[in-house]
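User: Please fill in residues for this 169-position structure.
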């Protein structure tokens, strides 16, 4: 098991391709790995579990704070992009599918995003729950899960939100 904390680079509004055609450039936005808007502060933690070449699980938690209504805009943009681009083909023949799924109703608003990447012989799935509380987004992501592997995602999102509300981090 590997645990890492990092602050990933974030392109914000610049060059995100959000107004263009559905393309590979939108995949980070559609999967909630990168969001529109420029946060005033960001922090991230990632845990990965590698059981071998066929079994890898990655869990991430991100905290993004905005000085304005960027958190609300990011949530709205994400919903709009997924409704506009539910399927995105990649240049290597794979395809990515995104959808809004039922999820917990927590914070000021929340959304559960599912994604899957289908290649020649494999389908990799992932889930994200985004929770907005005021000008802050708490994002919990799980990648490469097996069917039903997201069963703890709601609880993880609720715990992350509770931790943010009680500690501010």
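Assistant: Residues filled in for all 169 positions:
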């Amino acid at each position: 098991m590997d645990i890492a904390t990092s602050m990933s680079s974030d392109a914000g509004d610049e060059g995100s391709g959000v107004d263009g055609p559905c393309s590979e450039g939108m995949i980070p936005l559609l999967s909630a790995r990168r969001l529109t808007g420029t946060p005033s502060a960001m922090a991230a933690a990632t845990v990965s579990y590698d059981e071998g070449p066929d079994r890898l699980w990655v869990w991430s938690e991100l905290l993004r704070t905005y000085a304005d209504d960027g958190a609300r805009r990011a949530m709205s943009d994400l919903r709009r992009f997924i409704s506009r681009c539910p399927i995105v083909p990649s240049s290597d023949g794979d395809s990515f599918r995104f959808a809004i799924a039922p999820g917990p109703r927590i914070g000021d608003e929340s959304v559960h995003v599912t994604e899957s990447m289908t290649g020649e012989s494999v389908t990799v799935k992932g889930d994200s729950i985004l929770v907005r509380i005021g000008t802050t987004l708490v994002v919990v992501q799980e990648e490469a899960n097996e069917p039903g592997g997201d069963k703890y995602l709601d609880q993880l999102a609720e715990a992350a939100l509770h931790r943010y509300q009680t500690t501010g981090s």
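For context: The chain has three helices and eight strands.
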